Amino acid sequence: MQRKARLVKAAATAAGLLSTTHVGAAPSPEPGFGLPRDVSEYGHHIDWLIEVTAVFTALLFVIMVIWMLWACLKHNEKHEADYDHGESKHSVKTALLLSAVIFFVVDGNLFYNSTTDVFRVFWNHDSVENNPQAVKIEINAHQWAWDARYAGPDGKFNTKDDIITLNDVRVPVGAPVLLQLVSPDVIHSFYLPNLRVKQDAMPGMINRLWFQAKQTGEYDIGCAQHCGVNHYKMKGTLTVLSPDEFKSWAADQSAIGARGYDPKDNEAHWGWEWRARN
Amino acid sequence: MEELQHIHPEPTSFIRKWVFSTDHKVIARQFLWAGLLFLAFGGGLAMLIRWQWAYPGEPVPAVGSLLFSGSGGSITPANYNSIFTMHGLIMIFFAITPIMIGAFGNFCIPLMIGARDMAFPKLNMLSFWTFLLSQCLVLASFFVQLGSGAAGWTTYPPLSTNVGTPGLGQTLVVAAIFVTGVATIMGGLNYVTTVVRLRAPGMTYARMPATVWGLWLTAILNVLFVPVLGSAALLLLLDRQFGTQFYVAGSSAVRGGGDPILFQHLFWIFGHPEVYILILPPWGFVTDLVSFFARKPAYWFKGSIFAMSAVTILSAVVYGHHMFVTGMNPMLGQSFMTLTLIISVPAELLFLNWLHTIWKGSIRLTVPMLFALGTIFVFGLGGLTGLFLGTISTDLYLHDTMFVVGHFHLTMAAAAFLGSFAAIYFWFPKMFGRNMNQTLGKWHFWFSAVFITLVFCGQLAAGYAGHQRRLFDPYQYTFLQHLHPLNRWTSYFAFLLGIGQLPFVYNFFRSVFMGTKAEMNPWEIGTLEWTLPSPPVHHNFDTIPTVHRGPHEFANPEVKKALGRDWIGQAEELPKTEKAPAKPAAAAGAS
């Protein structure tokens, strides 16, 4: 019995080790309804705003429904209708005041928090660009897969030591990750549900997206923009590794890439010189 | 007014009377039939989508072997793309638009403002026949190689160019959008001119029923913005058929000849006004109906008109919120978010006015009233969920998910659907001269309202959990696998919603041919169309009426004293009582 338990434990450990190194390891399913697990350093900003607004709007909706039900029950055909055009100064003031209060509380909260979050975090690509810790990845989104390219030790893209993967993006935990996205065919949208971010890959443009994971594991990469027959299959895996694991994985992959490098293969040179825009 | 609108004799030949008619009431019925037919078609496509999400890859019962014989009765990914694309296009352009704007725009505007017909009756006829041509193009697209359009109703290039969707089907569909746009512009010009030029004496703008206001504002938006859609579609056709590159970019990192983003700008410059094009008429219906059936004047009617006009203007400057994740400049995004959030002010005013109208009324829960209240209910849900999508940071997560689908179905689909049915049940006696069965109508209402809410709330819940739109098989994603039971239940509700339309189909056909004869004014309402026989004669008004007051003069004590009833017609003279009454407050409000 004990031996069996030990075996199971060993197998589990081995499986656990494998799952972090094995290519395309599966993400685990979500435990329940509602927002998916948040594994991003800043995702809670979005979650908080969604949840608070959900409470506000639910409250407004419930008040509206109770009002309607009450009116239908109490002010039915037995009730004599008031002769009121609602045009008195008092009526107009009440309506305007109520609208203003709802607007400033609900919309004001959305406006203030979205503005600070977007400018400080989600669309603040420049601060990440200048952060030496940041991991930079080029993503070539095409029908129907995600090609990823890391610069390798030389820090330059489209060179011999690049790391190139397919539907397999690996990042270290706790470090900002900056992506540049392109598409050679139709529009795709790079979507990380567990990190609450999304960005279109638009033909003719280089778009940027950044995130920072706070928890290791595997997570789904989805395509959010209809991109043809196999849109539903255009998925990849984001693997968040510990910094050491990431370092050793990157070194291995760079060496493998260099071994198979062919300078004359144009197809393999889909990368571009990193564009640090300001 | 009389000299502007001579009475023309009614045509006697069948063709001129019922087929190529210039009578706005006949054209209204033609639009209604064409729209209802395509509503059933689009609804059928929705059922197929829901089947796929409930039982992915399994053969469709009953119709599968007929429609998808090549794949053993199952929907293939290519089929699926065509189905959701055409569901969206058919519902928006070929079902809701003809029913609400084609049928009720045509029927209500002249009758409610006291005109004998539209300003341009022949243009009106041409508008319907052009529309019918566009419907034929849509039908034809299903019978060509590679099938119908499959690039989504938004037809974003490059997917909608030959790069992504080759084949004649997509071309026919884009052509159909262009042609239906032409029909809509002709109709819109007609409505705008009719309202401006042919209002009866005394029918000031403030005395126009809200229905006419809604349809008029919609017509203005149509005339201004459908041409933008037309140019977007035209450039797309050139890209598809003549090798131009308006929307085809070069290789990935280098800018090529064209720009796919250009299409999105053009599309949404039209597309955002379009959602208000589809909701302004129901807002008008609801504003009138809640007052009519609460037997109480519409609360701060001028405020409601002001709110609808404000939304109309704002609708033109918020379209960028559809493009927050395209790589938009952050400052531009910020401006679009701000303008979008401002729309909630007039929308709240409108809701408050509706709620105040029914408050302390004498509510009659007739079928049209139930549908009007249902419209408020679903539009409340739809409007409130819009807040999450108009805000940038929350949209980063929710963009292109089922949350968006749930939101716009609650507004454009559920509210427009229930609003259209409110209008159908309300004006049916005037339109066809016969009554619909009210019991069946109530069954239809409860089935529709309950299940349409459940279906679209199911979509909201799926989107909240991150479910993207337009996935043939969502369960390929690990993070969506637990949503299968939710989607399956949503599908059951959708099937019940479909079944719930059968009472309407039966009731409609039975009533058109065998319903009891309708009275002149079955609802006891004061607007001008109810002073005419049901159905009205060819030229509507023997003498053009002179209007004295607004459309919502209910519960006026003076009227009760003089006439013994709680309503008075817009063109009715209030008989003098012994004591000369002071001018009623309502008439003052309608200056």
| Radius of gyration of chain A over all CA atoms, rounded | 26 Å
Tell me the domain tally of chain B.
Answer: 1
Class from secondary-structure proportions of chain A: alpha+beta
- Summarize model confidence as the mean pLDDT of chain B: 93
Number of strands of chain A: 10
Q: What is the CATH architecture term of chain B?
A: Up-down Bundle
- The end-to-end span of chain A amounts to 64 Å
Keywords summarizing the entry:
heterodimer, A: 278 residues, alpha+beta, Immunoglobulin-like, 5 helices, B: 591 residues, Cytochrome C Oxidase, Chain A
Describe it.
With 278 residues, chain A is α+β, with helices and mostly antiparallel strands. Chain A has two domains: 72 residues, no CATH class; 133 residues, Cupredoxins -  blue copper proteins (Immunoglobulin-like, Sandwich). Chain A has a five-stranded mixed beta sheet. Chain A has a five-stranded mixed beta sheet with strand order 4-10-9-6-7. In chain A, a hairpin with a 2-residue loop joins strand 1 and strand 2. The radius of gyration of chain A is 26 Å and the shape is elongated. With 591 residues, chain B is an all-alpha fold. Chain B has one domain: Cytochrome C Oxidase, Chain A, CATH 1.20.210. The chains are: A alpha+beta (278), B mainly alpha (591).
